[in-house]
Amino acid sequence: MYIVISNSDPTPLYEQIKKQVINGIIEGKIRSGYPLPSIRALARELKVSVITVKKAYEDLENAGYIITRAGKGSFVAEASMEFAREEKLKMVEEKLTEGIKICRELNMSDTEIKKAFQVILKEMS
Amino acid sequence: MEQYILEVNGLVKRYKDFSLEKVTFSLPEGYIMGFIGQNGAGKSTTIKAIMNLVPFEAGDIKIFGLDNKDHTVELRNKIGYVSEEQYFYEKMSVDWTGKFIGSFYPNWDQHYFEKLLNQFKVEKTKKIKELSKGMKVKLSMALALAHHPKLLILDEPTSGLDPVIRNELLELFLDLIQDEKTSILFSSHITSDIEKVADYITIINDGKVIISEDKHGILENWGIIKAENSYFHQEIANKLAGLNKGDFGYSGATPDLEAFEVLFRKIFPQGKYLVERITLDELLLRIVKDSEENVAIIS
Amino acid sequence: MWQLLVKDLIIQKNNFPQNIIVFVFMVILFSLSSNTIGIMLGSATFIFIYSFAMRTFYEDDKNNTLRLLVSLPLKKKTIVYARYFAVLVVSLVITLVFALAAVAMKSYNILLAPEEALAFLYSLPFYLSLYMILCAVFLPINFKLGYIKAASINRFIFMGFFIAIPVMLNFLKNLIPFQRFQNIISSLKNIPYSPFIIILPILSLIIYLVSMVISVSFFRRRQIF
Fold first, then answer.
1. Shortest Cα distance from A100 to chain B (angstroms)?
2. Model confidence pLDDT, tens digit, residues B183-200
């Protein structure tokens, strides 16, 4: 797994770490049972403070993406894929809503929207 | 339950024109604490009190659970200390200095010391008086690390160093805490260094600790508020640190974004304001501004 | 503690030639005013001891290394002990060197007449005792005030000592009737030499140790930062 963080990105560092782990799960780069680097090792790697990574891991654990076993480290949780899928579905919903909103702003009718959608589907198949 | 490596409790130290007033903070094992404040805010004095180099009037300091006055020698064997300025026998060599200082530490690791000198590119054969300020700091770091201390106390270690070596040093700090047993307290007025690697932040101003908590507590709860002057209200202003009022709008730092939202809505249900992420630098500036104007937002 | 002692010696090894020059200069100066070469040599040995003791403080003051020393894992009193020990060791070594020189001069009849060399040899324990007592005065002042402030005071005492003794003797001579003075001198001369050679150094050592204890308490209270 590859995590990059950017200091110029206004998103807090721990949010950046969280997002990338979730993306890794969604994209299937890391699967359930995959061991995550230890908090300290990742902090060292990213040159950020331990507490930043700890915060990201805690949030990931609370959201059910990873589990932490005392003395063994953190692993991608079994149900992580489902959470990730849910998360992704939410994203789909958001993007579609956004697209439809723009369509409405352009005063497109529902039929026109559906048509446009079908065109895109055809193009991408 | 977290174990504290360093506990400073109600430290009082009085000088004619300056005093530390009940300085209190603690550093958990395995973490880095950044100690921020302006020059003259009391960072060095606090650190010297921790090292039992200056006497103090009240309070107590515990290191590894032991009183620092009663166990000075024992504790210093486990502490690596780099002072604000470096004091060496100028006409002696780096090599001699290492052997001399090393001879006082039972667990001195000469091999590691030489490795560090290599890494820092400090020449062993050079005389101390031939070293630049940066080189002396690096030598001090090597001297402080070579007995594998479990607590590093560094007084402005990065000042006077170029950005490259500063970065190397910060990476070294992160390396050192990998064992979960080594803890670091380092003071700096370069807040970006601290923001990068510190887990806990203690801000001191005019001899008083203003904030001491974990970095995320600060960076998440605090925020910079910006709003138009039409949404200005004294009650709001009272809750903002380092209030800055211009012709069109005002800005200030709030220690609690949620509480601020509640307050703002109460006064201006339809009002608008902007929230910006706070940086330690900005936080420090706002705190200093308040103290100079004698307003205290944070008690 | 040993490291501190060795450090004091090593740091000053370069000053040794300089001390020899001063020593030679003093010898020439004294030989102009005094006719007893033994006394002159004995007095000049103090140059080495005084210069060594003062230099150790000078180095720590110049480099501000007391700040380094007090932050090391050692007790403050150890720093004081080591300094006293170093001065004592240097004094003993110098006395020994001069004693050997006196023996050599006596046996080979060089530089000094045999009886003068012998007188010089016998006077050495007295000088050593005297210098220990002088150091017992100098060292606490240094530990209390630091080199810069202490140096002027010490120089004053140092000079004063060499001026004051003859003046005092003169003063005593005038105060006490000449006959009684002669009696005191002759009674002193009648006391056998051997007890003195033991008692005086022991006495001075005790004074030296008392001075060390005083220095420890001075140094403990001294603000170094």
1. 28
2. 999 998 888 888 888 999
CATH topology (fold) of B4-214: Rossmann fold (3.40.50)
Smallest Cβ distance to B73: which of C14, C68, C75?
C75
Instruction: Starting at the earlier edge strand, list the strands of the sheet with B32-36.
Output: B79-82, B151-155, B183-188, B32-36, B200-205, B208-214
Q: pLDDT tens, B87-141?
A: 999 999 999 999 999 999 999 999 999 999 998 899 999 999 999 888 899 999 9
Closest partner CB to B53 (pick from C3, C11, C70) = C70
Q: Which residue of B has its CA nearest to A7?
A: B196
Order across the sheet with B274-276: list the strands: B241-245, B249-254, B223-228, B274-276
pTM, rounded to two decimals: 0.83
Q: CATH number of the domain at B222-292, out of 2.30.29, 3.20.20, 1.10.10, 3.30.70?
A: 3.30.70
Identify the three-state secondary structure at position A61: helix
B228-275: pLDDT as tens digits: 999 999 989 888 988 988 899 999 999 999 899 999 999 999 889 999
Residue of B nearest to C75 (CA): B73
Return the axis-axis angle of helices B110-120 and B94-102, rounded to nearest 10°: 140
Cβ contact, residue pair C74, B90, below 8 Å: no
Domain parsing of chain B, residue ranges:
4-214, 222-292
Q: Which residues of C touch B81 (CB under 8 A)?
A: 71
Of the candidates A10, A43, A51, which has its C-beta nearest B216's C-beta? A51
Chains B and C touch (3+ CB pairs under 8 A): yes
- Domain ranges in chain A are 13-80, 83-124
User: What CATH number labels A13-80?
Assistant: 1.10.10.10
* Residue B35 to residue B54: CA distance in whole angstroms: 19
B4-214 shares its CATH topology with B222-292: no
Q: Is C218 strand, coil or helix?
A: helix
Cβ atoms of residues C211 and C132 within 8 Å: no
How far C8 CA lies from chain B's nearest CA (Å)?
Answer: 11
Residues of A with CB under 8 A from a CB of B: 10, 12, 14, 40-41, 43-44, 47-52, 55
